[in-house]
Specification:
245 residues; alpha+beta; five-stranded mixed beta barrel; 7 strands; 21% strand; elongated; binds zinc ion
């Protein structure tokens, strides 16, 4: 069995036996990894508190048939504030649940890794309203795995423009010609809010959206949830635990 080293973010942990824990990790090099940390729940464990949920760690592991085994762990970013705040912790749990669902074992996905890392960093910076980062994360994650939401062009015919029909199934904004009867029309600020949520890399602008456009944000948030759940084919259980203004 081979030893290897990789960076990973702890998605979730399960107790195993009296003193061990199973971890789901998103690694930089190997996609999702399921690994066991032996003795981690024993007082004075050599892992200390380094393998908590949402921690970004540098790991040594050896491969097993079903589970790899963690032999060393060094903290790169503990994201400790997230675990002390209920709303941030609920938001991070939702991010981890979505990533756990889409990530594949043995398939490196650098975009998803970077997105999760930046989303957790945003939550660790003590935001007043962690839910807005969840809204953004859902659309950005969907885009990273191939379901990009259209906001500047019709999702069907690709005609550019400020369209006002909005569809989950069709993948975003629709022009009047492509919108099936019954498609709902929304105020343009809603589509602008969806565009801002989906734009890669921007986290610091999100609190401003939450503050300045509460109505558009609320509609865009429920759209983001429906969009992600439809295209990723799963209802996210942790979503309802995230406090919303
Ligand atoms: Zn069209």
């Amino acid at each position: 069995m081979a030893n290897y080293r990789d960076q990973g973010i702890v998605l979730r942990t399960y107790k195993l036996g009296e003193t061990d824990r199973i971890l789901h990790l998103l690694t930089q090099g190997r996609g999702k990894v399921r690994a066991v940390a032996r003795g981690v729940r024993r007082p004075g464990s050599r892992f200390g508190g380094r393998l908590e949920a949402f921690s970004h760690v540098d790991l040594q592991l050896y491969e097993g048939r079903n589970l790899d085994t963690i032999t060393q762990a060094e903290l790169l970013a503990p994201h400790a504030r997230i675990r002390t705040d209920y709303a941030a912790s609920a938001a991070a749990s939702l991010m981890a649940e979505v990533v756990d669902h889409v990530a594949q074992e043995g398939e490196r996905d650098h975009a998803v890794f970077l997105l999760l890392r930046s989303g957790l960093q945003a939550l660790d910076a003590e935001p007043a309203d962690p839910a807005i980062f969840v809204d953004a994360f859902l659309l950005r994650l969907a885009s990273a795995v191939g379901f990009h939401v259209f906001t500047d062009a019709c999702a069907v015919c690709r005609t550019p423009g400020a369209h006002v029909f909005l569809s989950v199934k069709a993948g975003g904004a629709l022009c009047a010609d492509c919108a099936p009867t019954g498609t709902r029309a929304v105020d343009r600020p809603v589509i602008d809010a969806v565009a801002l949520l989906a734009r890669p890399g921007e986290w610091t602008v999100l609190p401003g959206l939450a503050r300045d456009q509460p109505a558009a944000r609320a509609t865009a948030a429920s759209y983001a949830r429906s969009f992600a759940e439809h295209h990723l084919d799963r209802r996210f259980r942790a979503y309802d635990a995230v406090p919303r203004p």
